Write the structure tokens for this entry.
Amino acid sequence: MTVMTTHKVRFEPVGIDMEVEEGETVLDAAFRQGISVMHGCKEGQCSSCKSLLLDGDIELLKYSTFALPDYERESGHILLCKTHAYSDLAIELLNYDEDLLRRSIPVKSFDATVTGVVHLTHDIRRLELDIVDTLKFWAGQYVDITLPDGSVTRSFSMANPPGEPHRLAFIIRKYPDGAFSAALDTALQPGDRVKLKGPYGTCFRREDRPGPMLLIGGGSGMSPLWSILQDHVASGEHRAVRFFYGARTEADLFYRDEFAKLEVSLPDFKFIPALSHAADGEGWTGERGFIHEVVARHLRSEGLDGEIDAYSCGPPPMIDAVLPVLQMAGVEPDHIFFDKFTTAVR
């Protein structure tokens, strides 16, 4: 009978203790025990879980040196998603959110059934699932989904609010050679069974905040932002909301009727789509340019009052362009939440 070796991990400066099994990453051990430390891609690419090893013996699995440069590794920095423990550890969390830790949800596995795949645009689909068990999550979080044959697992954000825990929706961009997304138009059929694991993610809606809320996304970044918006509506909270969405052409926009209804029913709400490749003469009268440029123009012209919360979801170049715009507009760093949709490496 194999005896599993476990080690103790202490997170400073928050004073949280947990156990990690040999062969398990520190991040996975935290997920399993409902300790939601800062994280992003879970694959050693994004640096969100970068921390400082204070004491103990570890092994780092393969990671990107963009996430952890050699000079930082030499000074004791680690990535929790790639760290295996071989003794008790003391780790200093360089980035932590007390609200995130307070609202942690243990990661679990779920069985789900495909109920539909809806075409939203030529390359955007909405995957709809039913699950028997209750998946508790915060608006903006995501799960890992594994195809029926177990061959491919990808991370996707819920598009529905947490108030619908048994019926899940995911807005997914379809790529021609995508190992998962290509199956949306071919292999996945109603009645198929898939596996879910989650929830993950730190870019979730913070509650009871009176200041304005900015939602900024593009492509499938609509998914977590739509969940956050629906959760905000259900909460009954009153705050100014600006939803910025970047697309290439008008044909890449969707949910326009739903946004129009919200602009009528929701106090101080504006949906601001922007097209980066709108051709002259097409009749488009809305914003043109990249979404970070549009956000900058609106923040300068509107002068929103109060402490802003900003949520940005989409590809890394978009996030990297948006962050300095928000900082220059005076949005506090601890009120900026983002989810970079990195390319899968497996």
In short: The chain has a mean pLDDT of 92. The longest helix spans residues 222-235. The helical segments are 26-32, 70-74, 98-102, 222-235, 256-265, 291-302, 316-328.
